Amino acid sequence: MRILVSNDDGYHSEGIHVLADALETLGEVWVVAPDRENSAVSHALTLHRPLRLTRLSERRYAVDGTPTDCVTLGICQVMKEHPPDLVVSGINFGANMGDDVHYSGTVSAAFEAAIMGIPAIAVSQVLGEHFSFVPAGRVARHLAALVLERGLPKGTLLNVNVPPRPPKGLRFTRLGKRRYTEGVVEDTDPRGRVCYWIGGGDPVWEPLPGSDFLAVAEGYTSVTPLQLDMTHEGLLLSLLQDAASWDLPA
Amino acid sequence: MRILVSNDDGYHSEGIHVLADALETLGEVWVVAPDRENSAVSHALTLHRPLRLTRLSERRYAVDGTPTDCVTLGICQVMKEHPPDLVVSGINFGANMGDDVHYSGTVSAAFEAAIMGIPAIAVSQVLGEHFSFVPAGRVARHLAALVLERGLPKGTLLNVNVPPRPPKGLRFTRLGKRRYTEGVVEDTDPRGRVCYWIGGGDPVWEPLPGSDFLAVAEGYTSVTPLQLDMTHEGLLLSLLQDAASWDLPA
Amino acid sequence: MRILVSNDDGYHSEGIHVLADALETLGEVWVVAPDRENSAVSHALTLHRPLRLTRLSERRYAVDGTPTDCVTLGICQVMKEHPPDLVVSGINFGANMGDDVHYSGTVSAAFEAAIMGIPAIAVSQVLGEHFSFVPAGRVARHLAALVLERGLPKGTLLNVNVPPRPPKGLRFTRLGKRRYTEGVVEDTDPRGRVCYWIGGGDPVWEPLPGSDFLAVAEGYTSVTPLQLDMTHEGLLLSLLQDAASWDLPA
Amino acid sequence: MRILVSNDDGYHSEGIHVLADALETLGEVWVVAPDRENSAVSHALTLHRPLRLTRLSERRYAVDGTPTDCVTLGICQVMKEHPPDLVVSGINFGANMGDDVHYSGTVSAAFEAAIMGIPAIAVSQVLGEHFSFVPAGRVARHLAALVLERGLPKGTLLNVNVPPRPPKGLRFTRLGKRRYTEGVVEDTDPRGRVCYWIGGGDPVWEPLPGSDFLAVAEGYTSVTPLQLDMTHEGLLLSLLQDAASWDLPA
Description:
homotetramer; alpha/beta; two-stranded antiparallel sheet; 6 helices; globular
């Protein structure tokens, strides 16, 4: 078995080393990761400039690009003779739950694998006092072994969030909802010019039954199956039924 | 009515001016857009540094950030006294269909509005010989008027792609599938160092019935309803039914 | 006569437009400037990625790079059939005097021209209440006309700083000295992480006779001749005289 | 003795480790270096955003900024209780000679120290077959010991280039001259858009007696004293003598 590991915290982060080590017993692990932190670059692809790929040691590479760039270069260049059987992204330093998966480079790396038809898992460590990456490494290996054995439906991936304290077990969940809170903080630089930071206050979650947020809050690891296809089937149906009323006059 | 317009091609692109002009008859149009091209930054949020907001003229602003930054600053800062009734993103220079919506800054700007509970439309112009933005502007105004009147379900948006020649009409569609083609091109810089460009060859689409790609290929404007929530309900159900077999031994 | 104009505040800044207009009476003016603000990039050359050159209108170009990139592309690509007779950089929004010329993109653009053997002038507008770029434009045209007529010694350029109020006249000066003041300001981002801004407090200048700073403080435009060659001749002589005492044992 | 070490190839480059190890016998070595390669950023200062300072281990720090940022943070923040007695920058991967010192981040780091009144040395390894950083480390320690003992005149620094083969000895030199060669290479990205790389062809040097280039070509280490003050005294004198003819009519 061949496993490609990437992340968005960068090659030198602790989480990716714990992850790569944890997966070693399952097969040959290749790491292709950004050369620096890339948090919240989401599914960015670097198209306007070429990328540099640096071989650091055997099966270990750094890229001056995004997580999505890394998975693309990993599959199409580094491992092109024998593509990976599984892509695992993480362990992210911090949660990737609910609506916030849209911003996540860790989840996007897994989506890129799904676009290329390869099963994928994204693993994130929710922060809290005295957390350690070790339990998340164990969870990742457990789920990776099962996915390698059973596969995943085409166009899907597993999004995993591990609670700060050793998890009580797994829960299959849906994405939670974040309540909108104050999103912009005004600041002044030392030269007196106004500037704005995105995202002040802590996110507030709605305690929806079955959500990833609730599972983690209750001490469980959340495993949320995600789909590549974002078509809203229900709305599509109702639009089709009412199509005439949307017509654009010639 | 108050409409916030943004894009990912940047404030100085032609598409955003055509769009802002087309929407003027529907209400007060505010533009908050990146100060340069941001293609394929996807849903990136700038969290590691503060943003600069430059007022260019009445209700026109540039931001040194991403499309998602622009929508956030637009709603939470520029228009904070009276948030917009609608967010329209575009007109993008080039298609945003199928799996590629994951990479799209134009679509992400609309998703950011949806996260904040505001109806949103993303508009893209498929390229081709002798195309013009004018028909796309007309389509955008038509759909914007209907969405302002009828609303959209929470957590959804409309993703619109306008064909290169004047469209024959609208079609409600689902996201198409792109077939995987050669993704990385090796290059050598003038100093002899190897580097890699993401994405050579033209994308090849599977001609799925009902897809955005097919509608556009047949000369129609595609309108695809998208959802914020990427949970795969079917896979979630089957995982829940089989949960015991996924258990992690303590 | 052919004149190449560039700057580091970017194509859309006011200063470069005043400068280009002021020089129109002297010859054919070409503008190749960064597509966004590049302050304090100094003499950076973009070597790790290729540059995009966008033609905006006749003899007007934007580059996604630094001032030095712009001068290089301007001379070697845009104007390669007939290189310019003069390069003028500015009008910078803010002073470039004393030690600070080392940080200045405006001055570096002029140095790049000097490296390529073309006479060059860097023009900066010192800020102050009610300043206007108009007098600086007039000064630039006056000096440009004289340099086009008389030339400059190889490897030199003129660094011009115009005071905030209409100047009383020109003074030829040397670079002043800035007294070291507190250089780093600690800040905390909204997520509680510490970060550091370079450069708090206002610079304090030593009131050296003959310095650029003093000329501007007294209401004159300072014109400082700069040289490309930074060899310290005096120190070189004394090192050579004492060379034996520096020998490295084999 | 306290020594601050920085560079522009980044914290993870080999040259800075060889340098820091070589200087350990002379005093307490502190390293504050960029978290990634910064070649050719020259004397850039990061003013538009705050910087992150990461402590990697005892007296070892990485900064998400330029070499000049690193020296500023090193002196004003990291070592602010007891500023360094000497700043050494390098060992750069590649030469920094002649006019090219204007582009060099390695030399700029040393200039920043000079601006702050601290003696500084910039060390670069000229590339060639079978080169090693070890001789350059030895040269750096030798010169650092002498500069710590004897000091350097205010506003000066030593720019050192070590040849690819073990050096025959030291030579005190002046900056050489590069002959202008073809500077821009046109390229086409995989999507067919034209772009431009700065700097094709190898630089060609004029074989000036006493130049750094000649010393290195003949197998010696070149040591060039540089000055912060770029005023051209000779031109200033002749301009002053002829000042009336430059007058700007009111």
